[in-house]
């Protein structure tokens, strides 16, 4: 998932070591190796997501959420919005009322053009007593309305000039 160049041999060796520990069920050793790899390559999304899954296996939901959020943030930054949504939804599998995740989904869906889904997450947040400054769907609709008015005005001006 890392964009750009190859990872260092040391990082590759640590990832291989971590995968071997994981296959053997030695989750804490795998976590240690992945954390060492993450120090060397903090932008590798796969490492964050592997750590998240491992922390879930050892029932440390707080750390799992941290690494899932980190992975989702990296995915969003790299333009993989749909994948970021999938990672965030993974958190909801075990933490369905996580406000930070619900807000993130509420904000990401409009970027994908999915206003209905954003509105659904807004409702979930409201049900939890969380207020949203300006609902993302309303913000997008207002922006589109302004753009449409500007286009219409330009068309009217152009049409009027063509009649003269």
Structure description:
This protein is mainly alpha-helical and 164 residues long. It has a domain at 9-95: Serine Threonine Protein Phosphatase 5, Tetratricopeptide repeat. It contains 8 helices and no strands. It has helices at residues 9-23, 27-40, 45-57, 61-77, 81-94, 99-111, 115-127, 136-163. The protein is elongated and about 80 Å long. It starts with 8 loop residues before the first helix and ends with a helix. The relative contact order is 0.07.
Describe this structure in a few short sentences.
This protein has 164 residues and is mainly alpha-helical. It has 8 helices and no strands. The chain has helices at residues 9-23, 27-40, 45-57, 61-77, 81-94, 99-111, 115-127, 136-163.
Mean pLDDT: 87
Find the CATH superfamily of the domain at 9-95.
Answer: Tetratricopeptide repeat domain
- Sequence stretches where pLDDT stays below 50 over 5 or more residues: none
Query: Number of helical segments?
Result: 8
Taking the alpha carbons of the first and last residues, their distance comes to 58 Å
Strand fraction? under 5%
Looking at the structure, the CATH topology of the domain at 9-95 is: Serine Threonine Protein Phosphatase 5, Tetratricopeptide repeat
Number of strands: 0
């Amino acid at each position: 998932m890392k964009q750009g160049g190859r990872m260092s041999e040391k990082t590759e060796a640590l990832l291989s070591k971590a995968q071997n520990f994981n296959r053997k069920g030695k989750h804490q050793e795998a976590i240690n190796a992945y954390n060492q790899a993450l120090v060397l390559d903090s932008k590798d999304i796969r490492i964050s997501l592997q750590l998240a899954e491992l922390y879930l296996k050892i029932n440390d939901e707080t750390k799992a959420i941290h690494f899932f959020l980190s992975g989702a943030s990296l995915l969003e930054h790299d333009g993989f919005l749909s994948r970021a949504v999938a990672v965030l939804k993974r958190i909801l599998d075990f933490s369905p009322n996580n406000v930070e995740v619900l807000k993130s989904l509420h904000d990401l869906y409009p970027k994908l053009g999915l206003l209905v889904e954003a509105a659904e997450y807004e409702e979930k947040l409201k049900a939890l007593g969380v207020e949203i400054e300006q609902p993302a769907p309303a913000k997008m609709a207002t922006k589109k309305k302004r753009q449409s008015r500007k286009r219409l005005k330009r068309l009217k001006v152009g049409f009027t000039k063509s009649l003269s």
